[in-house]
Design goal:
With 331 residues, this protein is of the alpha+beta class. The chain has 15 helices and six strands. A hairpin with a 3-residue loop joins strand 5 and strand 6. Helix 12 crosses helix 14.
């Protein structure tokens, strides 16, 4: 599997012999509880999930490049608890889980929508009208969708604010409505399938992202993309700030200053710290003198700027390439 710190994954697994993995709602709640326990143990950021009768989908980020360890722990934990609760023995899941590395910039948002639409992508809803489908999605208990739309339906183990701030600008009633409408828009007509962008059976991403991953592979691994070793080690935020400052002919102290005139460089330093350090947004914010939400907003603003300015995007990629060289362990 392709593993590196900060990577995003779509993860899926089915029941053994395609049998149900949930017999009752106690099993479903047990699944959610086991998932929360494993995410906490392995410092996993859980973004979305949906539970169906005989399979599940997850969208996660792995700050510590430990997807395999996390999933092994989670699947074993759920299997043991399921068997004890139901007086069963043997396997619950069908072999190893499947995972795809996800390009955050281009595919994380549409993939989250595809996952959240799973409950109505069945024969049962083939001829159902739109109001029936939207109501079912809104009331479906075993998905993160409702929590992104309504505060009262939130799960304390999900960081809803990060996703909403990143893709809808803020975590407010207006942003939650926009998130809800984004999903509902795909109900009326053919549902967009992000899995059509899968490359090498391992990656969902645009070509520049695929090229970025390929550049990190040793020659042998380029021929065997699924069998990739971990790519990076963590870099301190201080080193990242220094590198960004050097690239912009500035001082590191200027980038840490909240009142700096070098807004673009400061936002780049924040974004690259998020991608390549082992710091969480709250910890990054402390270094830059801001709170957690401001870090998220800064990253969102930078993403908008990069999409509208070719010159700025070129500068960012040049600095990121230098940071990546620092992130590759020497063998």
């Amino acid at each position: 599997r392709i593993e590196y710190p900060g990577a995003y994954y779509h993860v899926m697994n089915r029941g053994n012999r395609r049998e149900d993995i949930f017999l009752t709602n106690k099993d479903r709640q047990g699944f959610v509880d086991a998932l929360a326990d494993s995410c906490d143990t392995y410092s996993i950021k859980l973004i979305t999930y949906v539970l169906m009768d005989n399979h599940f989908h997850l969208l996660v980020q792995t700050p510590q490049a430990n997807l395999s360890e996390f999933m092994r722990h989670f699947l074993v934990t759920y299997t043991v608890r399921f068997n004890l609760r139901n007086g069963c023995t043997g396997h619950v899941f069908q072999g190893r889980f499947k995972s795809l590395l996800v390009d955050e910039d281009e595919y994380l948002l549409p993939l989250s929508r595809y996952i959240h639409l799973n409950p109505i992508r069945s024969k049962r809803f083939k001829d159902a009208d739109i109001p029936t489908k939207t109501e079912y999605l809104k009331e479906y208990s075993w998905s993160t969708f409702a929590g992104y739309c309504y505060l009262r339906k939130r799960n304390k183990n999900i960081d809803y604010s990060w996703f909403l701030c990143t893709y809808f600008g803020e975590d407010t009633a207006k942003a939650r409505r926009r998130c809800r409408e984004y999903v509902y828009q795909a109900i009326d007509g053919e549902i967009e399938n992000p899995f059509e962008a899968v490359v090498h059976q391992s990656i969902i991403g645009a070509q520049d992202f695929v090229d970025w991953v390929r550049q990190k592979l040793p020659r042998k691994a380029q021929r065997e993309v699924p069998a990739l070793n971990r790519l990076q080690h963590h870099i301190s935020v201080e080193r990242i700030i220094a590198e960004v400052a050097k690239a912009g002919n500035a001082k590191a102290a200027d980038l840490r200053d909240r009142k700096t005139k070098l807004k673009d460089l400061r936002q780049m330093a924040i974004e690259l710290s998020y991608r390549y350090s082992n710091y969480k947004q709250k910890e990054i914010g402390a270094i830059f003198g801001v709170d957690y939400s401001t870090v998220s907003q800064s990253r969102t603003r930078l993403k908008t700027k990069l999409n509208s300015s070719r010159k700025l995007k070129k500068q960012f990629h040049r600095i990121r390439a230098q940071i990546e060289k620092m992130a590759i362990p020497k063998i």
